[in-house]
Amino acid sequence: MDSKQTAGEKAVECIRDGMIVGLGTGSTVFWMIQKISELINKGLSIRGIPTSKETEELAIKLGIPLIDFSKIDYIDVTIDGADEIDHNLDLIKGGGGALLREKIVASASRKLVIVADESKLVKKLGAFPLPVEVTRFGWEYTLKNICKLGGDPNIRMIDDKPFLTDNGNYILDCRFDEISNPNKLNINLNMIPGVVENGLFSKMADVVIIGQSNGKVKSITK
Ligand code: 5RP
Predict the structure, then answer these.
(1) Gyration radius (Cα) of the chain, Å
(2) E-strand spans in 91-187?
(3) Of 122, 137, 143, 177, which alpha carbon lies 20 to 30 A from 220's?
């Protein structure tokens, strides 16, 4: 079995009947969503909060009931992927461009479970360019301010046009050779006018489930 599938399916074991479940975005979480749908067909009752339009469409197609923030005060558990994970369980997310909704959903969650394959584990964050969501207005100026923090930003493109997030914003993929203090960089980036949110998830993950090539999983707890 694919390592992403192993991790995604294992994470579902923490879901209990009646829970509100944050549904992450990406190819690892895809397997978690498939598994939830199977369990719903066998009688499990949960409601999901999707972190992207892509996940929302998949959940609707698979018959997973959804709910929104107007009806709830918190989320029981969120299961999401990551682009990099360090030994403190700090993360880089946003490779799929869903980082803003992912961070809102994660921060509303009592428990954040991250699923990934072994390639996502790193000693230091930063080899993966950090996605930063910025407003379209003034993005060139925002980019210059990110450079002042030591980043080397590039606007994300798709089919020769800037990539647009589900929220109508741009993404700047920012190379920071090595991120020695994720918490500080997270705060400093979010203080720049025009930055909507960035993909550093510092001290948010409770458990990381790593799918391994031998079909087993490794769980790392905070
Ligand atoms: C999307 C994300 C994803 O969780 C991250 O990119 C990992 O994706 P995948 O499981 O496909 O490797 O942050 O914004």
Answers:
(1) 17
(2) 91-92, 109-117, 130-134, 152-155, 157-158, 161-162, 170-175
(3) 177
